[in-house]
Amino acid sequence: MKYYYDLHIHSVLSPCADTLMTPNNIFNMANLKGLNMIAVTDHNSLKQLAVCNELSKSYDMLFIPGVEISVKEGFHVLCYFMNIRDALQFDRELECFIEQTHYDTDIYGEQEIVDIYDEVVATYPFHLSNPTQLTLDDLKEVLNPYKHLLIYAHVDRPSYSGISNINKDPLDGIELTHHASPEFIKNHHLSKHHIVYNSDAHQITDILEKSNLNQMELESLTIEAFFKHFKNG
Predict the structure, then answer these.
(1) Burial 10-48 (b: 16+ CB within 10 A, else e)
(2) Long-range CB contacts (< 8 A, 24+ apart) of 82-85?
(3) 46-68 pLDDT, tens per residue?
(4) Is the CATH code 3.20.20.140 the one for domain 2-231?
(5) Residue-level pLDDT, tens digit, the chain, 233 residues
(6) In what helix (H) or strand (E) does residue 24 lie, and over which residues does it extend?
(7) What is the H or E stretch that residue 151 is in?
(8) How confident is the model over 139-161, as pLDDT tens digits?
(9) Nearest CA-CA partner of 133 in 185, 180, 71, 208
(10) How is residue 150 annotated by DSSP?
C-alpha cells in the first residue's frame, strides 16, 4: 500500500525551531495533513522522543524514532531506529560527542524538552546545531550495535549537504527537498539511491501535505516494513 510521510521534523528542542513545534502540535498537524508516518529528528539529540513515542499511541500513525546528526565533516545525516529503546540508548552514547559550547538563548531561543502536555520540563544547555565530534565513520561504528537506517540529509541544498560523499560512500538513502529538479537528480546520478522527500520543518505549517513526492510503497504500516523498504527494496 501507499503511505504518506514526513521523516524530518524538528521539535522545540532544536535551535531555531518555532515555539509551536511541540509534540502535540506536530502530531495534530501531521494528522490534519493526512500523513501516515512521521519522524521527529532534532539536531544531535533524541531527548524529546520518549514523549513523542507515547503520544503516537493515540494516533493511527507510524512514529519512527530519529535524529539529525551533524558529523565532523560538516554535513548532516538522518538516522532512524527500529525502536524507542535503541534510540534512547543511542542518545546516551551520542551525548559524549556533543561539543559543550555556549548556547545564546537571546539569539536562538531556548532548546526545550517538554512533557506529554507540552509543558517545559527542562532545557538543553549546549548548542545542538554545532557539529558533533563524530566523523561519518565514527558514527557508523557507534551505530553498529543498533538496527538503524542512515540517510544523507537535504543533499540538494548548498549547505550541510553530503552530496560529494554520496556515490563514494553510499548510505541507506538520500533526502531531497521538493525543490530538487530532475536535472539535479540526473547530474548527480541520484536515481540509483533510495530517495525520500521531507520538509525539514522548523515551523508547524512547513510539515508536508500528502503528495506524489512524499509517498512510500510498503507491505504494511509497520517499522519492520519501513526498514525492509530500504534494506531490501
Answers:
(1) bbbbbbebbeebbbebbbebbeebebbbbbbbbbbbbbb
(2) 82/146, 82/147, 82/148, 82/223, 82/224, 82/227, 83/147, 83/223, 84/49, 84/50, 84/53
(3) 999 999 999 999 999 999 999 99
(4) yes
(5) 999 999 999 999 999 899 999 999 999 999 999 999 999 999 999 999 999 999 999 999 999 999 999 999 999 999 999 999 999 999 999 999 999 988 889 888 899 999 999 999 999 999 999 999 999 999 999 999 999 999 999 999 888 788 888 888 999 999 999 889 899 999 988 989 999 999 999 999 999 999 999 999 999 999 999 999 998 75
(6) helix 23-32
(7) strand 148-152
(8) 999 999 999 999 999 999 888 78
(9) 71
(10) E
Size of the chain, expressed as the number of residues it contains: 233
Q: Which cell numbers hold the place of 77?
A: 545525516
Which helix (H) or strand (E) segment is 93 a member of?
Answer: helix 84-94
User: What are the domain boundaries of the chain?
Assistant: 2-231
Query: What is the residue type of 148?
Result: H
Whole-structure pTM value:
0.96
Helix (H, G, I), strand (E, B) or coil at 44: coil
> What grid cell was written down for 117?
502536555
